[in-house]
Amino acid sequence: MRIFSTDHKVVGLQYAITSLVFLLLGFLLILLVRWQLAWPETSEMLPEFYNQLGAMHGTIMVFLAVVPLAVGGFGNYLVPLMIGAPDMAFPRLNMWSYWLYLCAGIVMLASFFLPGGAASSGWTAYPPLSVFATSGQTAWLSGMFVLIVSSLFGSINLIVTILQLRAPGLTMMKLPFFIWSQLVTSFLLLLAFPPLQAAAVLQLMDRLAGTSFFLPSGLVVSGQALTVSGGGSPILWQHLFWFLAHPEVYVLVLPAFGIVGEVIAASTSKPLWGYRARVYAVLFMGFMSFLVWAHHMFLTGMGSTMSTFFQVTTMIISIPSVVILSSLLLSLHGGSIKFTVPAMFALAFLPMFGIGGLTGLPLGLAASDIPLHDTYYVIGHFHYLVAPGTLFALFAGIYHWFPTVTGRTLNERLGRLHFWGSLVTMNLIFMPMFAQGLAGLNRRLFDGGRQYEAFKGFEFSYELQAWAAVALGLVQLLFIVNLTGTGLRLWKTRAPGDAKSEEFSTDGDPSPSVPRSSWKTRAPGDAKSEEFSTDGDPSPSVPRSPYQVRPDTGVSSATMAFWLFIASEVMLFGALFSSYALLRVSATDWPAVGTMLHNVLGGLNTVLILGVAVFALGAGRTGSSYPRALLTVASVLALLFLAVTGMEYRAALTLGLPPATSTFMALFFSLTGLHALHVIGGIVVNVWATTSDRRKLVARYWVFVAIIWLVMFGGLYLL
Amino acid sequence: MKLNNYVGCLFGGKRHPTSFSAKKTPDVIMVGAIVALVVAAGEVAMACPVCFRVEENATTDGVRAAVLVLIGVTTVVLGAFAKFIVGFAKREGRD
Fold first, then answer.
1. CA nearest B78 in A: which residue?
2. Cα–Cα distance for residue pair A162/A48, rounded to 1 Å
3. Contacts of B70 in chain A (CB under 8 A)
């Protein structure tokens, strides 16, 4: 097996193994935290290190462990198999996605060895604290930036693969629910991550270039007034962060639904019930998840209008979750349930996720959220969703598909011990958190609140949680032993044929979760020989090259990937324009038009970038006579655009107006700098555009770059 | 049998001829009343307990503008996807 492989199975396994290692590391960090909370008086731990442990636990678990396992691992390995595709649509991009993810993880972990240690401002990285944190925070931001690029590659690949490389006849409403969950999850990753990327750039500017995007005026730290320009807003970070982080919750949960659905269908020996309702629910949830983020911010005093809006949307989004959960539950009705290890994990997922979901309702309403904010109640709620929730689903998936991957079945007895141990210990850890939170116990206290009279009396629950966490760790050792022992053939296992033949054969029905009625239009022989063959490409309706149009979608894979990329770019710049709106509207003073920037130079750049777009469009036209010459002219104009931008930068710096002087200049340098990077990228792809298909895409890209400039020109120069 | 009727209605199965039809009018009134309440009395009923509606300042205006821009951009992007999905579904149905 090659390490730098483009095979989707190898990449899937790489994702799975790496994310499981991160899962273990993240768990070990929080084990130290639980020990500190239980016995702070005997602990040598410094408060600064405690903060690092908390911040990195959250970051590793969410961004480096659970999501990569659920999407990168399960998605990469199973999606092409389930839809009858030979591989992912862009195998090389897939490989890059994994290696970038690994690099991001290493950068974040290595920050523990930096002077001052790792990031310590929580997994949410709230400013102003994060802006003044040690260099570990810079590593966190850089790692996050790379991780987002990796996620972008992965999500584009999954979407295009599902929509473009489905076997002929496998229409959307015949897709296994697992595929739907991966599809919607990929859309969430694609659109929700770019605003955090924008926020990471702005926070890096605050940390490295001295700007004040997130620093308000008059900030005093340790009794000393800061020498920063101010005028920024810490709330801006919260908006951009939660715009990602709330859909991220669904990124954690939706693949879990998909996996549990497959396992339940296999364990009950019948298709899942309510297929259409589940599909519509998952689509609705995907759309709505972008409209609820500010329910994490009721405490910021966003005003009653906004508060009302986000409370209503939050209540609405709970409906599709209930539909899916109910559908999974009702699927058990009438089935002959086999209580195998994966089935037990999948069945336990239902009530555990239910507890997590129901305890979330009070947090979606401002009146009850505000007293519970930042208490252990929130931790309990979230962990019920993700730990005995999503993680149980992932365990179910691992036990269920391990035979498909290795040809061997995991040891049943060790598996049962793993299940019961995890179920009991996780509940012992997380259930007391609701009581602690309802008593008002704050989640961030280094000594567990012992210094406060009101929080005394929790010693027993802390000790119980610590011992339960140790036991949970021991139980996971059984899982590791089971994985390695079975993988290395240290003991006898069930005949692989038993497990493989039924659950995951691509000959015929690829997934038991699809209603059998969906398949009755085809003769079984056809389905076997042609429809789901993974050997090559038997039908002209499946594109053979990235530029071949698939009849039912009406686009080629390359065009679809391009539009998905542009969608993520729109979200990136949309987040930056949103930042501009917040800083501009809330500013007490804003420079008058023409006082800081040269409107003539801005106007000249507008003409130049429009010229680039026009020449690129000419080159991309079908039947264009001199496409290479037109693209060369476009490149020259783009270079002139960069030169003019450079002149403006030089003029601003000469006049003593670097980014740190005001939020206006900070916005100017950040927005135009990011745009200039896109222009440089455009010049590079002009060289790559050697065929007419590529030139069409490049022309559209330049139109997008020109439109972005026009919006920026209006905001920075004219308004 | 009874369970199947109810569940069938909820999950797109075949609807029982008599179930729910008699409740249609009260359902409409109920939904209408809830919508009217949310629209008319939402601000009072769900006033932010932090500021109790005394919140108008430049910062909240700024936040409101930022949220509107973010929601606007998201709506445009999601709308484009929805358009693609509808067109795609039509094409798939035709084929």
1. A287
2. 45
3. 195, 239, 243, 574-575, 578
**Nearest residue in A to B60, CA atom:** A302
Asked if the C-beta of A232 comes within 8 angstroms of chain B's C-beta atoms, the answer is: no
Predicted complex ipTM: 0.86
Looking at the complex, report in whole angstroms how far the Cα of residue B22 sits from the nearest Cα belonging to chain A: 24
Q: What is the largest CA-CA distance in chain B?
A: 60
Please enumerate in sequence order all residues whose Cβ is within 8 A of that of A357, keeping only pairs 6 or more positions apart, or say none.
A318, A321, A322, A325, A385
| CB atoms near residue A133 (< 10 Å) | 24
Q: Which of A274, A308, A583 lies closest to B62 in CB terms?
A: A583
Mean of the pLDDT values across residues A703-709?
97
Strand blocks (E) in A399-468: none
pLDDT tens digits, A127-157: 999 999 999 999 999 999 999 999 999 999 9
Whether the CB-CB separation of A213 and A666 falls below 8 Å is answered with: yes
Structure confidence by residue, pLDDT tens digits, A230-245: 888 999 999 999 999 9
Mapping DSSP to helix (H, G, I), strand (E, B) and coil, where does residue A442 land? strand
DSSP symbols for A160-202: HHHHHSPPTT--GGGS-HHHHHHHHHHHHHHHHHHHHHHHHHH
> What type of residue is B36?
A
Which of B66, B76, B92 faces A239 most closely, judged by CB atoms? B66
Considering just the CA atoms, what is the radius of gyration of chain B in Å?
22
Q: Do you find a cis peptide bond into A128, omega within 30 degrees of 0?
A: yes
* Predicted TM-score of the model (pTM): 0.88
B73·A587 Cβ contact <8 A: no
B54 touches chain A (CB under 8 A): no
B47 touches chain A (CB under 8 A): yes
d(CA A263, CA A401): 9
pLDDT surpasses 80 at A692: yes
- The separation between CA A267 and the C-alpha centre of its own chain, rounded to angstroms, equals 30
- Choose the mutation target among A326, A578, A711 for the interface with B, i.e. most B CBs under 10 Å: A578
Query: Three-state SS string across A546-592, please?
Result: CCCECCCCCCEHHHHHHHHHHHHHHHHHHHHHHHHHHHHHHCCCCCC
Question: Looking at CA atoms only, how far is residue B36 from chain A in angstroms?
Answer: 13
Are the CB atoms for B84 and A574 separated by under 8 Å? no
Q: Can you tell me the mean pLDDT for A353-378?
A: 93
Indicate if the alpha-carbon torsion angle B77, B80, B82, B88 is positive or negative: negative
Of A248, A192, A242, A256, the residue nearest A387 (C-alpha): A256
A426: Cβ contacts below 8 Å, ≥ 6 apart:
A352, A383, A387, A388, A468, A472
On the question of pLDDT at A522 being above 50, the answer is no
Q: What CA dihedral angle connects A310, A312, A313 and A318, to 10 degrees?
A: 130
Reference A81, options A17, A135, A162; nearest CA is A162
What was the pLDDT predicted at A519?
A: 37
* Nearest C-alpha neighbor of A277 from the set A253, A255, A261, A256: A261
For residues A397 and A346, give the distance between their C-alpha atoms in angstroms, rounded to a whole number: 8
Q: Are A189 and A71 in contact (CB under 8 A)?
A: yes
Dihedral angle over CA of A317, A319, A320, A326, nearest 10? 150
One-letter identity of residue B2: K
DSSP A64-94: IIIHIIIIIIIIHHHHHHHHT-SS-SSHHHH
N-to-C CA span, chain A: 58
Cβ–Cβ < 8 Å for B63, A581: no
User: Is A419 within 8 Å of A476 (Cβ atoms)?
Assistant: no
β-bridge partners, A220? A225
Contact with chain A for residue B30, Cβ under 8 A? no
